[in-house]
Amino acid sequence: MWALTLLLLAVVARAAIPNLRGMLIPPKAAVPQHSFTSPNGTALPPITTVYYFDQLIDHNNADLGTFQQRYWMSWEFYEPGGPIILLTPGELDADGFQGYLANGTISGLIAQQQKGAAIVIEHRFFGYSNPYDDLTSQSLAVLTIQQAIDDLVYFTTNADLPMPGGDAVKPGQAPWILVGGSYAGALTSWTMVNQPGIFWAGYASSAVVETITDFHAYFNPIRDYMPQNCSSDVQAVIFYLDGMYAVNDTAGIQTLKEAFGLGDVEHVDDFANALVNNLYDWQSMDPDVGPGAMFFQFCDALEVKDGMNAGPGGWGLENAIYAWGNFWNTTFYNYTCGDQDVETCLGTYDTTQSYWTNTTVNNPGRSWAWMVCNQIGFYQDGPPYGQPAIVSRILKPAYGERLCVNYFPEAFSSPPEPITSETNMMYAGWNVDVDRLFFATGLRDPWREATMSAEGLYKLSTPSMPIHEGDGFHCSDLITLNGIDDPTIAAVQEAALAYMAEWLVEWEASS
Ligand SMILES: *[C@@H]1O[C@H](CO)[C@@H](O)[C@H](O)[C@H]1NC(C)=O
Ligand SMILES: *[C@@H]1O[C@H](CO)[C@@H](O)[C@H](O)[C@H]1NC(C)=O
Ligand SMILES: *[C@@H]1O[C@H](CO)[C@@H](O)[C@H](O)[C@H]1NC(C)=O
Ligand SMILES: *[C@@H]1O[C@H](CO)[C@@H](O)[C@H](O)[C@H]1NC(C)=O
Ligand SMILES: *[C@@H]1O[C@H](CO)[C@@H](O)[C@H](O)[C@H]1NC(C)=O
Ligand SMILES: *[C@@H]1O[C@H](CO)[C@@H](O)[C@H](O)[C@H]1NC(C)=O
Ligand SMILES: *[C@@H]1O[C@H](CO)[C@@H](O)[C@H](O)[C@H]1NC(C)=O
Q: Which keywords describe this protein according to UniProt (predicted)?
């Protein structure tokens, strides 16, 4: 037996990257190290074997030719007649996500239960699946939601899979199931809406189906479920900062920056954005997270004084500034920036930094920024007046939109507004209504307010499109072990498996 551990993705996103820590990425599951056999005992190729599919560069213009799209696959559980389960991890290098082929994850559990084969496919412009060999604006023109949907469809209808009989399992010949979490969870929904009849069933975890430009609600679940004393003290500091900003008290702001050791951060919005990093650590939490997690280290630093915990109101502003500042000095600066100087790490105004200009492939932050700037938005910023703020109201969508110009000056001469309303119209957003799509959501997921379980949305769960919420964090239900740690997550996983069994009985070959 192999032990399954979660590799928290905070590591990927560490340092110098505005907004990236809060990217829409599913958790990695450890890649099992043992060898696999098919049901009749035949040894299978290593789970890390890379396969390549000739994918169209542009689904609107086949004449532009193809590029090599990477995928991995396992037919450990496959028996003829079983389903093909397809998953993309979404906006990052898919190498390292082979755990999603085995039963440590929901996709593997579905494969095991239904005697299916599992495939992990890399999303275009991430990792080493690139239509062109750089990430310039010109190349990225073919990075759109529609091209990503069409990639999935073209794969199902054209790939000859490397397993025995793999050339005769196209949709119609075999049932296909699309699985994804986070952005890829939304892509699952968007694909089933946009290209009906290809995937017989879907599983969408923490799926951010509704794109939202001003996504301050990202911080609501964090504000509500973090230790209340810590939330109160963070609010006190943010209120103080925003108050000084409102009256242009630059000297006061400078003193505050200095308490954090961030006196050299030139722009106040970059300072406000730096403070958000403490909150992004919430996203990488999972149900068995221990007190050592960075988020809890942060709250302990603020709330434990001389061995005593503050009450729900916290210790108050003065202590909060000192304790939060000291935490940056002793721990968090190094954790976030390492050896970099403050402006290199936290500044966003020097557009000559290689961070903005480097167009080398396998840079998920850059490719994702292209999607954010154009179609997806989700700028994580301060709330409107009248709501308690754990993030400064200095941060507005304009902060993120300015970064779009930094990255892609050839494409944007001024800060672009993403066309989120068009995206929601094209792919239905919260109005999705398709058969056999299972939505899994998490109560403590910071992305919850863009999912089918968003506050106030009251989407009805139905037998043909069930919505099941557990107490988990972001995409917790994708990982088998999280069901063992939290029975509410186990219930989500069990419900999904039951639906898959029922839905697959209904499938009939059509060609
Ligand atoms: C075992 O299954 C593989 C396909 O996985 C097939 O190629 C092979 O012929 C089978 N062997 C036997 C003995 O059934
Ligand atoms: C998961 O799959 C492995 C084979 O890869 C099998 O030995 C194990 O029993 C399965 N675990 C469960 C819980 O079914
Ligand atoms: C106060 O903060 C501590 C340390 O983070 C935490 O363990 C405790 O639950 C919090 N108490 C309240 C009432 O918020
Ligand atoms: C804010 O204060 C700075 C320095 O004191 C000054 O240069 C700037 O013009 C002021 N801005 C506004 C909007 O009052
Ligand atoms: C953090 O370090 C800076 C620079 O050394 C210092 O000015 C500041 O007082 C320190 N803050 C705390 C709370 O110790
Ligand atoms: C900074 O972090 C690195 C890696 O975690 C660690 O090795 C190093 O000792 C830290 N430096 C300081 C000054 O804390
Ligand atoms: C550009 O990015 C690539 C890949 O991340 C990296 O290997 C290379 O060193 C970077 N080049 C510069 C000039 O920063």
A: Glycoprotein, Hydrolase, Protease, Signal
